[in-house]
Amino acid sequence: MQTPLKIAVVGSGLVGSLLAIYLKRAGHTVHVYDRSPDIRTIKFSGRSINLAMSHRGWRALDEVGLGDEIRQIAIPMDKRAIHIVGEPLAFQYYGKDGESIYSLSRGLLNRKMVSLAEAEGVEFFFETKIWDVTLADATLHAGDTERGEWNELKYDKVFGADGAFSRVRHRMQRQSMFNYSQEFLNTGYKELNIPANEDGTHKLDKNSLHIWPRNDFMLIALPNLDGSFTCTLFMPFEGENSFEALKDKDSLEKFFATYFPSTIDVIPDLVADFFKNPTSTLVTMKCYPWTYSDKVALIGDACHAIVPFYGHGMNAGFEDITILNQLMGQYGDDWDTIFKEYEISRKPNADAIAELSYRNFMEMSSKTADAKFLLQKKIEKWFSAKHPDKWLPLYSRVTFSYRPYSEALAIGDQQKAIMDEIMQIDGIEEKWNSPEVEQKIIELLT
Question: Does the pTM exceed 0.85?
Answer without folding.
Answer: yes
